[in-house]
Amino acid sequence: MSYCRQEGKDRIIFATKEDHETPSSAELVADDPDDPYEEQGLILPNGDINWNCPCLGGMASGPCGEQFKSAFSCFHYSTEEIKGSDCVDQFRAMQECMQKYPDLYPQEDENEEKEKSSKDLEAALTEASADEEKTRSS
Question: Per the UniProt entry, what are the Gene Ontology biological process annotations, in alphabetical order (predicted)?
Answer without folding.
Answer: mitochondrial respiratory chain complex assembly; protein import into mitochondrial intermembrane space
